[in-house]
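Minutes, project check-in

Agenda point 3 was the complex the collaborators sent over. CS summarized: two entities, 578 residues total, and the question is how they sit relative to each other. Sequences were read into the notes so everyone works from the same version.
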Amino acid sequence: MFVEIPAPVKLAAPTAGKPSVVRRASRALPPYLYLAPALALLVIWTYRPLVQTAQLSFYSWNLLPTQPMLPAGLDNYRRLLELPELGQSVTRTFVVIAGLLPFTIVIPVLVGLLTKQIGGRARNFYQGLVFAPMLVAPVASAAVWRWLLDPGAGVANRVLGTGNNWINEAATANPSIILITGWHLVGFAVLVVSAGLSNISGDYAEAAQLDGATRWQITRWITLPLLSPTLVFLVLMTVLLSAQWTFPLIDTLTQGGPADATTNIYYLLWDYSFHSFDAGLGAAAGMLFFIGFGLVAAVLVWLSERLTFHDN
Amino acid sequence: MWRTVRGHLVLAVLGLLCVFPIYWLYATSLREPGDILSLNPLPWPLSVENYTDAASKIDMLGLLRNTMIVALFTAFGQLLTGLLAAYAFAAWKFPFQRVLFLLFVGTWLVPFQVTMLPNYVLLFQMGMLNTLAGVVIPNLCSALGVLMLRQHLDSFPKELLEASRMDGRSSWTTLWTVVVPNLRPALAALAILLFVNAWNEYFWPAMVLQRNNAVLQLGLRSFMGSEGNDWGPLMAVAGLACLPVFVLYLVLQRHIVNAFVRSGLK
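CS then shared the predicted structure for the full assembly.
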C-alpha cells in the first residue's frame, strides 16, 4: 500500500544510457538474493556434509574431538568390502524392497482396476480410510504393531491360534518389518495409482471396444502401458521410502536383530557410525551407498524414458 | 451392478485392514486396565485411566509442547525458504538457473544416513546438541517445498507479475501483495504436509536429542523401552502422539490427501 517508494529507481533504470556496473549488478542480483537462504541451508546441511563424508571415508577416526584423524587411504573401503555383514545387509535391503512391491504396485493396481466404477463421496470415504496409515508416526506404529503381534496376548496370535514371536524370531522378523512398512505405504500407492488411472482418457478403451477388444485385452494393451509412468514412479518411491520408513521401525522394534535378521543397509550405516564409533568405516559405507542409490535412480529414470508410453 | 458391489467390497476390506491397527490403538487405550486383553471390538466400559496413568509416568504436556514448537517452526521455515527460492526460479531468468535448480532436485539422492555424521559434528561444535534449535535449524530448507511451489508458480500468470512491475512495485512487494494471496491454497496444502512430516520425523531428532528425548516420538520410544508391556498406558501415549495429526486429517482430509499424492514423495 505505502511501499511505492522504490518505483523511481525501477523506472529510471531503462532510460539510463549506459547501465553502470552497480546498476547492472543490482538488476541481476534479486533472484540470487531470494535463493540465498534456501541455498545456504542446502550447502551447509546437505552438500558440505556429503563432501566431508567423502573425505572422512579416507581417514580413520573414532568420533572423539580430542583424537586426531589419521589418513587411511583406501583402507576403509577394503575393510568394508571384506565384511560379510555388508553383502548380507545389501541382500536384505533388496529383499525389503522386493517385499514392498506387492504393497506399492500389485495391490494398488488390482484395487485400482477393480474399483474404477466407484466414484464420488463413497470413493472419498474409502480413500480417507486407506490413506490414514501414512499419517501414523513410525514410533506409534511400532508400538501398536508390537502389541498386535505380541507372542502371548497379541490379536494376531489369538485370532490365528498361534503363539509366534513374530518380531523376535529370525524367520519372521524381516517379513514383519515389511508388513508394517507395507501397511504404511499401501494407501498412498492406491491413491497414486487411482489418480494415474483417472488421467487416462476413456476414448482409447472405447475405440478398442468398438473394434471388439475384450476387457482383459483393453487392460493389458491399453490401460497398463498408459499407466507405466505412474508405476515406474512408484518403484522409485518404494526404493526411496523403504529407507525412510523401515529405519525407525527397526530401531524401535528389533535394533537390527535377532541375529542381524533385520539389519539392512540403512540400519548398518547408523550402526557403524554411532554404535561402533568407526567414523571412517561408516563414511565409506555411506559413500558406497550414495553411489549405489544414484545408480538405481539413474536406471529407473532411464527406464521411465525408454519404457513409458506418453498419452499425447 | 456386480462390478459396483465388488468394487465396494474390495475398498471396504482394504479400508478396514488399513484402519484396524489405528482403531485397535485407540480402543486399547480407552479400555479399563483390567480389560486390556479383551478381544471385544468395542472398548466398553470406557475409561481414561490409561491416560492418567501414562501422564503420571511421562511429561505428556511438555512433550506435546516441544513437538509442536519443532513442527511449527520447521514447517514455517521450510515454507518461507521454499517460497523465496521458488519465486526466484519462476520470476527470473538468470545464469546457472538450471544448475542451481538441480542442486535442489539432487537432495533426493543424498540419503540422510550419508550426511548425518558431519552434521552431527557441526551441531556439536555449535553447541546445539540436545536442543530443539538443533532439531529445527538443519531442516529449515525442504527441497520438496521448493519443487512444489515452483510447479505452482510456473503456472502462475506472468502478466500479473508484469503488471505489478509496471505499477512500479518492487519484486518484494509483488511477492507479498500479488503472488502470496493468489497462492494461498497451495501454500496451505504444503504447510500441512510439512507440518505432518515434521511432527512424525524420527531420524534427526533421535540423533540430536539423544540425552533428553524431548519430543513425542522419542518420549514414546523411551516409554516403550521402560514400560514395554504395559499396553494400556503405552497405547495412550502412542495415541496422543498421533492425535494432533489425526485431528488435522479429520478436518482437512481432501487437502491432505491431495497434497501428499501431488507431492509424490513424503
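Noted in discussion: The beta strands of chain A are 59-60, 70-71.
Follow-up: revisit at the next meeting once the mutant set is ready.
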